[in-house]
Amino acid sequence: MAKLNETKDTFFGIIAHDLRSPLTALNGSGSLMKHFLKQGKQIQVNTLADQIDLTTNRLSSLLDNLLNWALLQKGTIPYKPLKINVHSSINSILELFENNADLKQINIINQNDQKSQIFVDESSFNTIFRNLIHNAIKFSNDNGEIVVHSKQEENMTHISVEDNGIGMTLEQIESIYSDTQIQHRGTAAESGTGLGLTLVQQLVKLNKGTFKMKSELNKGSRVSIFLQAAK
Question: pLDDT by residue (tens digit) across 101-136?
Fold first, then answer.
């Protein structure tokens, strides 16, 4: 129990730090935007607006992950599976990350079958792939490429997110499977709690699916999710 409490204290310390960073970045943004508008500096206004969008998206994602993680620990997270279209659902998620990808000039390709459907809790699905796309962008170099692909395998649908970024060490991969939160900096010094992939695994399990991770240092990563195909 003492070890568990120590782990939780460390984890919440990391979360508090990652919450403080985007809030600090937003502090004074309104006043700065007003200043730029008075000076007629439209380029600076546009740049600041993009930064605010990225910061609020990051903050929203972090809070969503924290809430879902807490609900999973209590066993009270809603689970309402229904039939969804893979291609259109992934497209909606990719739209959320257009600015993030554009900043690094990353090309994201949606290669999912437009007719492919799966039976899954929609909220879980969105959280899973928001985290996977966010991670792929975070660990991709400028001018990188990310491919989201799906294929039918018997009664399961295999959906993969593959990037050609910096990859992971064996220790980092093992930490994911052991539910150990280790902070990893992205290629643009983006911070992270390590909660995302832990949450992904738990949500995949909740949806009676399977999670697999393959990565090689300096060559990229491939995350495979197997979810029940809709009949």
Answer: 988 999 999 999 888 899 999 999 999 999 999 999
Share of the chain above pLDDT 70, in %: 82
Q: What is the pLDDT of residue 4?
A: 46
Helix (H, G, I), strand (E, B) or coil at 9: helix
Comparing 161 with 43, the larger pLDDT belongs to: 161
User: Given pLDDT bands bounded at 50, 70 and 90, which one contains residue 159?
Assistant: very high
Task: Encode 128-150: b = buried (16+ Cβ within 10 Å), e = exposed.
Answer: bbbbbbbbbbbbbbeebebbbbb
The half-sphere exposure of 77 on its side-chain side, counting CA atoms within 13 A, is: 25
Extended strands (E) in the chain: 81-85, 107-111, 117-121, 145-153, 156-163, 210-216, 220-228
Burial of 230 (0-12, 13-18, 19+ CB in 10 A): middle
**Exposed (0-12), middle (13-18) or buried (19+): which is 214, by Cβ within 10 Å?**
middle
Sort strands 81-85 and 117-121 into parallel, antiparallel or unpaired: antiparallel
Q: Mean per-residue pLDDT for 181-185?
A: 56
- Share of the chain residues as helix, strand and coil, in percent rounded to the nearest 5: 55, 20, 25
Among 113, 99, 90, 72, which Cα is nearest to 206's?
Answer: 72
Cβ proximity of 129 and 104 under 8 Å: no
